[in-house]
Design goal:
371 residues; 9-stranded antiparallel sheet; 3 domains; 6 helices; DNA Polymerase III, Chain A, domain 2; 8-stranded antiparallel sheet; alpha+beta
Length: 371
């Protein structure tokens, strides 16, 4: 294989595929990425056997071929090259890199040893704007569980039904739900229900971050047996799915509420953050007291101290005290991306609901703590 490629194109491709390169593995091939010529483009691919990424970059192909390249060393070299034009010449798994007067030689592994990644099929797929998918991920991913014994909660539950796409995430103590409209769907199934691993969702979010500045970018999603494939322009992300049945999340969402108060997101966040300073891992609880025209926020941790803050609100109902993990509250407020929310409550030990004032497609449920 012999190609000429710009330094910027190589770095762009490396930035994408490095998301799937394994840093902790006993298999040397998984610390490498695949470089392969395909027609008039150069393919770069990487996988950790759970998540795989493929992308195409521009370059001049002098001689066709393929090679598996040590990712970290190659990236270190490309970053330090003095000129924009890079010549890569491969002979017998030896990768020679030339740019200006700088010359490097590193050893690769035969591409035949690299795992085969599936391509994107055009049989059945859905389409959604990249910026909308990124928003859905951002508003749910933080609520996924990290407890490996509850593996079905270690990802986002994706439901496609008609023209609707839904995402749900929960760790058993909080739950986030969002629904949006699809741009297009060729799926023949009436309803699709899958669980996408958190790692794949995070990698997808990182990928979407690089393109969502461009308006109206469309991402295609294909679901085949035990895997999901995302296609964005010339980049493809593949992930295995989590096998198992996701809990009935609808049972967790309260159908009504006795009390409802409107809160300024910035004030609510700042006040919770201030009071949370006097909490710790053993006593990570903040008390919220709704009184006439005010919300009191308090923390009392033995051996640490007390904190209290207050927000003026429009409230004229019965007094209620409820306690939450402040980190759960702040996670929601950091990602909700609105100015005002409703806090809906029933009893002190019943789940509370946080939702945007002017948007009905998103809500979060938080389980209270004992006071």
């Amino acid at each position: 294989m012999k190609i000429i490629c710009s330094k910027d194109e190589l770095l762009k491709g490396l930035q994408i595929v490095q998301l799937a390169i394994s840093s902790k593995t006993n298999l040397p091939i998984l610390t490498n990425f695949l470089m392969e010529t395909q027609k008039d483009k150069i393919k770069m691919a990487a996988t950790d056997l759970e998540v795989g990424i493929k992308c195409f970059i521009k370059g001049e192909i002098i001689k066709k071929g393929s090679i598996s390249i040590p990712a970290k060393k190659f990236m270190d070299i490309i970053r330090e090259l003095p000129k924009n034009e890079v010549l890569i010449n491969v002979k017998d798994n030896q990768i020679n890199i030339t740019s200006g007067q700088a010359k490097f030689s590193i050893t690769g592994i035969s591409s035949e040893e690299f795992p085969v990644l599936p391509g994107f099929t055009q049989k059945e797929y859905i389409e959604i704007k990249a910026e909308i998918l990124k928003e859905m991920i951002q508003k749910t991913i933080f609520a996924t569980s990290r407890d490996e014994s509850r593996y079905v909660l270690n990802g986002i539950y994706l439901v496609i039904e008609g023209k609707k796409i839904k995402m749900v995430a929960t760790d058993g103590r909080r739950l986030c739900f969002i629904t949006k409209e699809l741009d297009n769907s060729t799926c023949k199934k009436e309803k699709i229900e899958i669980i996408i691993p958190s790692k794949a969702v995070n990698e997808l979010k990182n990928l979407l971050t690089t393109v969502t500045e461009e308006k109206d970018k469309i991402i295609k999603i294909s679901i085949e047996e035990n895997q999901i494939i995302f296609k964005l322009d010339d980049t493809i992300l593949i992930s295995r799915l989590i096998e198992g049945r996701f809990p009935n999340y609808e049972q967790v969402i309260p159908v009504s509420s006795k009390l409802k108060v409107k809160l300024d997101v910035e004030k609510f966040f700042r006040s919770t953050k201030r009071v949370a300073v006097l909490t710790n891992e053993r006593s990570n609880s903040v008390k919220y007291i709704l009184e006439k025209d005010k919300l009191k926020i308090l923390a009392n941790t033995i051996g640490l101290g007390e904190a209290e803050d207050e927000i003026n609100i429009d409230y004229d109902n019965e007094q209620i005290e409820i306690a939450y993990n402040p980190n759960y509250v702040m996670d929601i407020l950091k990602n909700i991306n609105v100015d005002e929310i409703y806090l809906e409550l029933n009893e002190p030990l019943s789940p509370g609901v946080i939702k945007p004032v002017e948007n009905e497609d998103y809500l979060c449920v938080i389980m209270p703590m004992k006071i």
